[in-house]
Structures are given as structure tokens and as C-alpha cells.
Write a structure and sequence with these properties.
GO terms for molecular function: methyltransferase activity. By secondary structure, the chain is an alpha/beta fold. The chain contains nine helices and eleven strands. The chain has a single domain, classed as Vaccinia Virus protein VP39 (Rossmann fold).
Length: 298
């Protein structure tokens, strides 16, 4: 399947997911009615994010835009970009409801520079569950670098590639390459194991999920294509694109129940392994900066 075909399959998948995520049991959309509300993902990283007030920001792969709205409430002038037109319909309605002045643009992330008219930004933000939809992490990093002004900053929190390698064992029961799981001796006795690719592969992984991670309805276009990227691959891509790494933190928690039956939530809505959470990196936060004019790379 060509990259263009992958893109159309994933666009249809996310158009279908958008209605499910905006429906019963989906994203906490009513929360935006509280003018002090910030998404749990943005709130988690506030100490690392720094002051974004007065900054021009773009949220790549923004989906329904909860993090986009949160960054706008922190004072950034935000633009959201997503491949899914249906997602952006919900995002625009939600931004209006929240009283947030956000410009939304429909485009594939690889086409972002052209789609945004060559604009440059002080902040490029990417949130949970974004990088796995990209077949080429180096190309993504080059797009990010092209979007940043000198001195501008990339900020990412996403699923850790080790966690994404383990998802196939516990969650993806229908995957044809999955092992038979001889270690599963009964309910609650499963142990995560690395079964899916850790490193980026050309072919990626094809899923067929009629249920999404949020919402109660069925996903009308259930097929999707995803790619994992090793942590070193992500960091190297960012550095090769000319950015200076400022921050890399690995976390033992994720803002969703990534391994159902094996994780326990805390009061902030972060999930960790119930048994010995120190075994599994679940997410990471990365920040990098485009050097200013006349400033060389460190």
C-alpha cells in the first residue's frame, strides 16, 4: 500500500473516530465550559512547558483540539492542524463553545508548511497518540524545523515506544502476528511483553478496531495503519533537523488505560502498572529548540 493510500485509510478512520469521541462516553467536552479548565495532558507538563503567553503556536494532529484550547487559555495564539475534516468540525464547534480564538487547518502533517502558507511559529506542539500515525519520523522532524522561527520550540508528550511495543500482547487480540501468550494463566495475571516492532518499519502495522479508546459507538471505518519509532530514532530525527534538544523525560504513567486490567489510575487521571510500575516507561516528554540567528548548535 502506498503512503497516499495509508493516509486516506487513516483519514477515514479518524473521521469515524471523531464522532465516537465527541459522543457518549467520549472526550470530556463539557469540561471546556469551565474557563479555568486545562486538559490533563497539558496540565501534566505545565512545569516543563514554560510560559507560552503571547506566543504563536501550532498544534499538529490536534484531533478535537482539547490541548489546542488549553494552550490558548495559557495565552498562546493557537492554530490547530489535522488530517481529519470531521475532527476539525468538532474542534471548531468546541473552540467556539470555549470562547477560544483558534484557527484550524485541514492537512496532512507532512504538508503542514504549505498548508499553513509558510507561516513560522514560536511553538510546535504535539500531544499523546500522534507520532504513531507517521511512517517517517525524520520527515516529520524536518517539517517541525521548517515551521519554527529561530528560537522557537518543539514540545512533545507522547506514548513511549516501549509501551507501544507491548500493546499487542494485552490489547490487540486480533493481530495475526501476535504470540499465543502462554504466560496468560488467568484474569489479572497478564504481564506486558514486547511483541510489536519497537523500531520504525517501512510497512508499519495494520489494525482493525471497531471500538476506539474513548466513546461508546462503533468506528464505521475501523482499519488503520500505524508505525512505532524508537526513542533514539525520535531524538536523532529532531537533532538531525537542526534542533537543539532541551529536555527528555520518561514517565511511568500514561493519560489513558493503555493496558486494561494491568493499570491503576491516580487522582490526576494518569495510569501506571499496578504491579511494579517502575518496569515500564509509558510516555515521554521532549522539548527542543531551533537555534536563533547567529547561534550555532550546541
Amino acid at each position: 500500500m502506498s503512503p497516499a493510500d495509508h493516509r486516506e485509510v487513516n483519514r477515514a478512520n479518524w473521521d469515524a473516530r471523531a464522532d465516537v469521541h465527541a459522543g457518549p462516553g467520549g472526550y470530556p467536552l463539557d469540561a471546556v465550559d469551565d474557563p479555568s479548565w486545562l486538559s490533563s495532558v497539558v496540565r501534566f507538563d505545565l512545569p516543563r512547558l514554560g510560559d507560552v503567553a503571547g506566543r504563536d503556536g501550532v498544534h499538529l494532529q490536534c484531533h478535537l483540539g482539547l490541548e489546542t484550547i488549553s494552550l490558548a487559555r495559557l495565552g498562546a495564539r493557537m492554530t490547530g492542524l489535522d488530517l481529519s475534516g470531521r475532527s476539525l468540525e468538532h474542534a471548531r464547534a468546541l473552540a467556539e463553545r470555549a470562547g477560544a480564538d483558534i484557527d484550524y487547518v485541514r492537512a496532512d502533517v507532512y504538508d503542514a508548511v504549505e498548508a499553513l502558507g509558510g507561516r513560522r511559529f514560536d511553538l510546535v506542539y504535539t500531544g499523546i497518540g500522534a507520532l504513531c500515525w507517521l511512517p517517517d519520523i525524520k520527515r516529520w522532524a524536518q517539517v517541525v524545523a521548517a515551521l519554527l522561527r529561530p528560537g522557537g520550540r518543539l514540545f512533545v508528550r507522547d506514548g513511549h515506544p516501549v509501551l507501544l511495543s507491548a500493546l499487542g500482547v494485552v490489547v490487540r487480540d486480533d493481530h495475526p502476528d501476535r504470540a499465543q501468550q502462554p504466560w496468560l494463566s488467568g484474569p489479572g495475571q497478564a504481564t506486558p511483553a514486547l511483541e510489536l516492532p519497537y523500531f520504525e518499519t517501512a510497512e508499519g502495522i495494520t489494525w482493525r478496531d471497531e471500538r476506539s479508546y474513548a466513546g461508546e459507538g462503533e468506528v464505521a471505518a475501523p482499519e488503520s495503519h500505524e508505525w512505532n519509532h524508537g526513542l533514539a530514532e525520535i531524538v536523532t530525527a529532531v537533532m538531525d533537523a537542526g534542533l537543539v534538544l532541551e529536555l527528555l523525560v520518561e514517565h511511568d504513567s500514561a493519560p489513558w488505560d493503555a493496558l486494561p486490567g494491568l493499570m491503576t489510575p491516580d487522582d490526576a487521571g494518569e495510569y501506571r502498572l499496578t504491579d511494579r510500575p517502575e518496569r515500564l516507561p509509558c510516555t515521554f516528554t521532549l522539548a527542543a529548540r531551533r537555534p536563533g540567528r547567529g547561534e550555532g548548535r550546541a
